[in-house]
Structures are given as structure tokens and as C-alpha cells.
Amino acid sequence: MTTLTRRPDTLTRDALTVLQPGFPGTTAPDWLLRRLGEGLASVGLFGRNITSPAQLVALTAQLRAEREDVLVAIDEEGGDVTRLEVRTGSSFPGNHALGAVDDTELTRQVAHELGHRLRACGVNLNWAPSADVNSNPANPVIGVRSFGADPELVARHTAAYVTGLQAAGVAACTKHFPGHGDTSVDSHHALPRIDASRSVVLERELSPFRAAFAAGTKAVMSAHILIPSLDPDRPATLSHPVLTDLLRGELGYTGLIVTDGMEMQAIAGTYGIERGSVLAIAAGADAICVGGGLSDDETVRRLRDALVRAVRTGELPEDRLADAAERVRTLARWTASTPKTSAGTTPTDVGLTAARRALEATHSGPYEPLREPPYVAAFTPVANFAVGNETPWGVAAELVRLLPGTRTGTFTGENAGRTALAEAGPNRIVAVVRDEHRHPWMSAALDTLLAARPDTIVVEMGVPQAPRRAPLHLATHGAARVCGQAAAEFLTGT
Fold it and tell me: Which residues, 6 or more positions from 32, have their beta carbon under 8 angstroms from its beta carbon?
């Protein structure tokens, strides 16, 4: 335990309480433990902090030795966005696969099993699920993280996910309010804008959030997006009309409001993280998420001091900061008092079962399973920041296991198709793509392969929006490890 020589004043403790910082390494640094003793109530975990379940258990125990009710948060959506299995790929398909199956009980089971694993490792707040309606096919950041483009489908699966996750004792943080699905810009890099009318936003974007509220979601994450019909001046995270008037007032939400990462360029590149954090709390947010890119004590100190200074200068009402801090403590008390649950009746292989059910095969005639090792050509786009590039994806690893001798290569750019043809030699080609419809070079590569080798098999591991023109086209609806396994099983008939 850290020994304090002087108890921080209430204002300073409240300023620390509303922060959700990250940190480097797989053990808690001294500065983080000291901040927990001073009032910090939440910690965010990322892939860099996790090497194994046993290590994660030890890490969360270290945090709880300093503060028993600490909120330990993680961005574990399953599917393409995984931190628990960042180096292997997820054991659970993501939202788009679950939406493709459209079995809400399956979604609940997947979320419950994922929550059970998180809780067993000492994690009690999950920055998930994504309730975004992926209405814009060009969306570069949501895509397969969404249950789909139909608001009603997204709503019922969001509710099922929240129910399953929280039944396992892990608080859900439904995101990205008021909806990130109709954007063509990634808020990690710039400030997106949605020009939909207020009536469209209220009907389309908010439907899944209403379902999440009805299901009792403990937290909501705001989006760094500008929607002029709701607020022409400030992005949702910094908007009083969005967070207080709409979310608290019209929708009656009383749980915790968490910001998306404040170091994302939509905020950091326009307002700066200190000014942005003050504006977010003033607008109605209760917790400041930071740590995906900035993960040091200096960041915590800067944000704490900015909040304290804003109260002392009158820019931020002290009772607003106190209210935010109390909401954080209320959620911490809920997680601390919620008993751990067993996995119950959920099958432990529910993730693979879901991935198999989500697999969609389109073929022009009878398909004979592969008997000889193929050549797997992976056409790889630049990963979006939320997914990251640490997590392996594709079908090659599973095909190597099932058909030893399978070769593979990764290709990108305008010469990708010709290069893949040359590398494949006489082997049958399995072309693996991800969101072909968003990448003209990828579509051109497939045209090249299919013109020269008409028996090429295509496996789409993103949103299956492009025309299906191969003799066999598999849509996995996501790039989780189990999605690749399901595709490889189909290809080999195992």
C-alpha cells in the first residue's frame, strides 16, 4: 500500500476520480499506485498491458491491493478489436458476425462468456458494445464492429450484449453516442461530421442506445463527432446539448458517461486534451478516457491540474465535477458488490459456434473441398487505430494446420494482384480481403487474379459489400481468429 503524507483535498481527489488513464507495461508502475491512493478510481488496459490470463490476474490484483473498488476498464469488443487475445486473435466473433446470424440469444451467450472471462481476470468495465448503426458503407472505423446497417437489428443485439455482459458482473459501456456509423472519417485522425437531420439521428442512430438504456447499461461512451443538427459548434463529447440536454434530459439516462480517448485527433488536434477534458466534464461527461496513446504520470497530472484550475477560475462548476466523480464511485461500488458468476450454461466454444453460423458461402456450382495445399494471398489494408496491427487475422494459419504445405503472402498496392500471381505458382489461390468495397486497389487485384486463375477462392473478412464474382466466395463478417477457423474448416471440408 502507498502511504500518503497528506490527504489530497476534495477538489483534487474529484479531479483524479474522473480520469481513466492507461499505463505502459504488464505491472502497475509506482506512479499509478500512488495516484490510486490519492483518489484515482479507474484504470484503462490495452493490448500492451496483457500477455496471458495469469499475468492479467496478477496485474488486477496489484491494482486492487491499492484500491479495492478500482474500476479496471478494457476495450474488449471481441472480433477485430481484442485486447485479451491481442497476439492470437479473438475466440469470439465480433458484432457484424453476430448481427449476420441474428440470434439474440447467441449474442447474449457470447457476451456472457466474454464477460465471464473478463471478470475472472479482474476486469469489471468493458468499453463495449458498439451500438453504432453502420449506415455508411465507406465508414473506415466502425464497419464489422457494428451489428449491421438496420437500426432495429442493431438495437436488439445491443440490448442482448449488454444483458449478457452485465449478467457476468462486468459493466457495459455502450458506444459511441450518439452514433458513429454514418461517418467517412476516422475520429482517431480527424473530426468526423454527420450532416443527417435531427429527426434521422433521433430515429436511426439513437434506437440502439434506447435499447441499451432499457437493458440497464451501466455506462455510455461519447463519440468525437460533429452533428450540426444536434450542436453546430462542438463535437458530441464536448457538447452540453448532446450530453446533458439530449442524453440526460430527453433520453433520461442516469448512468456513467465516459468520453472516447481524448488523445484522438478529433479532440487533441482541435481543442487539446486539457481544454477538451474541461469542456467534456462541463458538457456532462463523467469520466475522461485517456491512455491509448498517452500513458504516463505527466498526462494524469496535466489533466488533473486542468480540471482543478478550471474549477478555481469558475469555468467548470465545482458541483458538476463533484457529480461526475460521484457517478464514477457509484459504478465502482456496483462492480465491487456484484458477485463473480460462473460460466453457467453457456458453452465454452460458443465463439466458434457463432463464427461457424455467421459464415456465408456463395458458389456458382458444387464445391469440392481443398485436398492440396493452396496459396493464400492476403490483401491487407492499413488497420484502423481501434483494431491495431498487432492482432493476426486471415485463414492462412488455420489452413497450414489443416493442409500442411500451404504457403502464404501479404500484398498491398496497385501491383498486388500481379505479384500474388507470380508468388502463387501452380497452387490454387485463396484470396483473403478485408472491406474490398472500400479499397479500389484490392478490387483490382481480385480482377487480376480471377482473370488469370478463374478458380480463385475469395474470402471476405470485412463487410461483404462488394460484388461476389468468384466461383466460391466466403463472407466471415469479421476477422477474429474463430472466423478464420470457420472459413478454413469450410474450405477443407473438416
Answer: 21, 23, 40, 43, 63, 297
Give the length of the chain: 494
pLDDT tens string 341-389? 555 566 779 999 999 999 999 998 889 999 999 999 999 987 655 656 7
User: Closest Cα partner for 176 from 235, 234, 232, 123?
Assistant: 235
Beta bridge partners of 45: 74
The Cα–Cα gap between 298 and 424 comes to: 51
Three-class DSSP category at 126? strand
Per the DSSP assignment, residues forming a β-bridge with 318 are none
pTM check: above 0.85: yes
CA–CA–CA angle 459, 462, 463 (5° rounding): 110
Residues involved in catalysis: 188, 260
Identify the residue whose cell numbers are 434506437: 207
| End-to-end CA gap in the chain | 54
Site of grid cell 465545482: 318
Q: Round to whole Å and give the CA distance between 341 and 399.
A: 36
Q: Fill in the DSSP letter of residue 19.
A: E
> How many angstroms separate the CA atoms of 24 and 422, rounded?
43
Interacting residues of 86 by C-beta distance below 8 A, sequence separation 6+ = 47, 50, 388, 390, 391
DSSP 8-state assignment for residue 29: -
Residue 267: alpha-carbon gap to chain centroid: 19
DSSP code string of 250-273: IS---SEEEPSPTTSHHHHTTT-H
